[in-house]
Automatic annotation (TrEMBL):
Organism domain of life: Bacteria
Keywords: Hydrolase, Metalloprotease, Protease, Zinc
SUPFAM superfamilies xref list: LuxS/MPP-like metallohydrolase
UniProt domain Peptidase M16 N-terminal: residue ranges: 57-102, 593-687
Entry annotated with the keyword Protease: yes
Pfam families: Peptidase_M16, Peptidase_M16_C
Any single GO BP term: proteolysis
Alphabetized InterPro entries for the sequence: Metalloenz_LuxS/M16, Pept_M16_N, Peptidase_M16, Peptidase_M16_C
Name by which UniProt lists this protein: Predicted Zn-dependent peptidase
Signal sequence, renumbered to the chain: none
Amino acid sequence: MKRIPLLVAMLTLFLCACRQEKTLELKTAESQGFTYSYVPDDPLKVRIYTLKNGLKVYLSQYPSEPRIQTQIAVKAGGKNDPASHTGLAHYLEHIMFKGTADFGTLNWKAEEVYLDSIEQMFNHYGTLQDSVGRIGYYKLIDQVSNQASKLAIANEYDKMVSELGATGTNAYTTEDRTVYINDIPSNQLDNWVQLEANRFQKIVPRLFHTELEAVYEEKNRGLDNDYWKTYEALYAAIFPKHPYGTQTVIGTIDHLKNPSITAIKEYFDAYYRPNNVAICLSGDLDYDKTIAAVDKYFGGWKPNDKLPEWKKVEEDPITTPVTREVLGPDAEWVTLAYRFQGRNSDDYRMLTLINKILNNGQAGLMDINLKQKQTVLEPQAYVDYLNDYCVHEFTARPREGQTLENVQKLVQEQIELVKQGAFDTDLIEAAINNLKKEKIEASQQNWSRSADLVLAFTNDIPWQDFVGEIDAMRKYTKEDIVKFAKEHYANNYVVVYKRTGKDPNARKVEKPSITKVALNKEDRSPFHVALMNNKVEKLQPVFLDYDKDIQKLKMNKDVEVLYTPNTENDLFMLYFLSDVGTNNDPRMKVAVEYLQYLGTENMSAEDVQKEFFKLGCNFGVHAAEDRTFVYLTGLNENMDQALQLFEKLLAQPKPDDEALKKLVEGIFKQREDTKKDKSAIMFGGLMSYGLYGPQSSFTNVLSNKDLRAVTSAELVSLIQDFTKMQHRVLYYGPRKTDEFIALLNKEHTLPDQLKPLPPAVEFAMTDVKKPSVYWVDYDMVQEEIMFLSKGEKFDKGRMPITQMFDEYFGGNMSSPIFQELREAQGLAYSAFAYYGSADKAGDNDLFYAYIGTQADKQAEAMKAMRNLLTEFPKTQSGFDVARDAIVSRIESERINKWDILFNYEEARKRGLTYDIRKDVYDQVLKFTLDDVTKFQQQYIKGKNFNVVLIGDKSKIKLKDLQSYGEVKQLSLDEVFGYEKVQKINVEKPNQ
């Protein structure tokens, strides 16, 4: 008998299930002396242990590669901050990376004396009112801190986890939780547990004032972010009594300026205890060995018998609409929100279902009536699932000439349709099916699996309830949904109008000057040495064999088919990929966008979307500069029907002039909005201008003039020609090869002769013979600066040393870029550097170095960055960490599933016939620090750099910029190129 994979069986049972709610049971079992709880037939195979000290341990086994995603969750966040010290939980998160009494220090007893003094000095500093006196006293804090730094080892935690082969090292703080994250090789589990057990049992606030500078920078970045400002305004209005609204996770400016180390320690002692923490792991783990290791190192952690009890703050009902307004440089939008009970309440299930009925990306009421009909821009609905309350948020941007009030009205009309029951009953079933499909898709990633464990723990959701949440939604009828909507969506909302304009209340955190601190880069603590000397079973790297891991098939007309089987579940991914993009024809991007608004002769565009949604499938399109793909994904059992509809849409799209008119108008509005987007200006337009000059793939778009002239006929012709041109097929799914090829030959209609690809326009990077500084004026607190240079022609032989250089110089928190600019000098929250190998044979590599800094530190930050690029910092220990990190990462990395196909495509684009990671692995083991130094001297030192900068013209020190090159202010039209004349060298179809 053929064995059906567990997830396939689950999905099949699910699709056939009736509306009766299934009750899941939590059972207990024992293994190797440890008792655990579990849910039979749980697809994540979770075991939940509770140690004697109260520590929860959630384990999910998923051996897709020899790695484990780790998340340690503390059930305390911003809402637990004392009102007198907001931002405390978040700042503690930063301090948790500074080490303990056992690591991060050269001499703990001597260092502790300085740290105690600094703590008392900050307590006194918080009592000072006179600004002159505060400046003078902070200089004393700076002096003592500088002495203390001579006894510290900066970023030793990051060095250790890097050497273990960890990736994604990070942490986050929300209103309800604080979570610490690593992705580690499975053979390093014991070392990781030992390290984390030490870290969580004692806090040491070393290098406090430089990290405080980083938090200041983070706060200033938030003050520059209109989305963040809107979020704060929304939550302050919807939670006038609860800490969700009365304080923010990052804290107020006044509290950040008067930090209390004593209060941070008290918070740590209260909440960072085993009976308030869960270790959540998913990956290639052995249950018995893992829990034994956790118990060995964490078992002695003392619980808090007087753990603070959180008492929910009850909000008064909202009885009339509450309106707020936010001003800032970004484009306008409206955000509407309704308040509900928390994540672990009955409201959760109904909210999730209603949200899908309204906005599921395909066939929701907002998708059809707002997005598909193009009545507003970017309509979205989202539920923020907080512990104490949930917030159902709706947001959209106006079209040209549309008011925010009108956008709000259109959004609320969709909510009214739910209240009236004006939606298809089968939309409920389809929504639940798609929720289940999304859950299965997410379960293929250890990050998502471990995140589910974190949410269950921090929201106090019994695991059996968490597993059964989606199935439980089947009990709801259309009548139930309508009744709930009528009761909960009325005039009880908050609306925030984000308008474009100068913020009259703009503020920033003024940062006191500090002296550069010592980093002691070459030193290691005895704890570090001992940890690295622990013997672990070595993992052997596994490299792709493109001839074995991918089946290269042929369908009709000798079209290439790249096939990799999905042996895990019943989902498929199908791509039609062509090496034609906007560099071949800038109309391609508009054409593929147009496709989503088209139907066929027999079905409207709305009906097409609804049908795909009912089938549990969806299609998408994307046009890049040198390739375009259209894709179909979803449930294998419905693939035949979905492919038939997909092929019909590609071959016979019905032109719709009205839809095109709205699309073009929407693109014009989006272009104007993009010119107000700081990130798009910096990392899109300015970066491209600094590398290529005014003509590049970035600016190779239809000009506004040509966009007005484009017709339905020519765009439909481009769509129809897509599968008539040379292309290939990529497939990841459960179908057998013969069955899949037969389906393709039947449904994927091809012409007798495939058309050749049209020629592409080539863009070359600028040789920086005479450096320039290009800057754009933007209303912001900070400045963002980037140094850019053209690299050499791509050479696969340079890729290993390139990766070695990147890992050493600017790739992580223990790199010289991060340590010097953030740790030692407090000049930035974010700083990094990267030498990038070209992704296409014949193209040039590139180099960039980025720093985001406060405007008044522009000169100092730029000078520090230039010095690092010129006077290469060399540390043997830093090199060893970088080398070991690359080696361990490759040894534990497994490229599998659909990633095999895209890895092959990336290699082929570079002219490679094998997995380049093999070269990287072999050569990194032989590299020395001298090799990295030689790379820097050959490819970076002495190079001319163009500099690009975005900031407020009233704060930019233009005179200081002159030493970096000829200074030129760019207009946004120059940056984006929308107004240029674009020639299209293709024949238009007969009208």
